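ZP: hey, is the cobalt (II) ion complex queued? I don't see it on the tracker
AM: it wasn't, my bad. submitting now with these inputs:
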Amino acid sequence: MSRELSELFDRNRQWAASTEARSPGFFTGLLSQQSPRYMWLGCADSRVPANELVDLLPGELFVHRNVANLLVHSDLNALSVIQYAVDVLGVQHIIVVGHSKCGGVRAALDNHRSGLVDNWLRHVQDVRDTHEAFLSGLPDELRIDALVELNVLEQSRNVCRTTIVRDAWQRGQSVAVHGWVYGLHDGLLRDMAITASAHEEVADAYDVALASLRQRWRQAVRQRASRTTSTEASGSTSPISSTVSSRAPSSL
Ligand code: CO
């Protein structure tokens, strides 16, 4: 085995030993069953490790990840994970998690060709095209994170529209769908406030979240414009102010 890989086994042994030392019987306790309360549908990006950033242990989070955190209605892989999570494990929450500066979203936005994955990212381009009028009103550097958020809204609604979630709601099972965005720049999660826990709530949750998203980004554009104007007026060319002005709004 290469040194690189044997290092992973070394690290694994250390991790298992320290976990067991901290909590004796930890692994044997998980043998018989898992009963996670949460399901995470996130991006495959290596900078967004699901368990770690919500500080949950093995057994506490049921995870599915793919490029750009999509729920495509013909994707048997993702649907099977959701079905098992809802019908067998009885998770209470399904959380769609996008992240800022997502490479998949950026490629989709820019029509960047990477190969087979372009077909997968076509779904993100559909989201882009649906919201084209809004996105075209944003400056280039803000557009990617706005599309990340729009994609979270769309994928959250897609989860709500699966037969699995609809059937669960119909039989009175308690399961809520949420949409969050993780900030690569500060390690924090933001709630996109598209939570739905019944079929009747989905349309309103989507509309309200979308209106709030648009308002936030338009406000960010205005703040950015006024900062640029005041910077120009003071004659400052500080890279710090230009860095701050190109950031997503702090209220996100
Ligand atoms: Co990503």
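AM: back. Residues 61 and 213 are 27 Å apart (CA to CA).
ZP: great, adding it to the tracker
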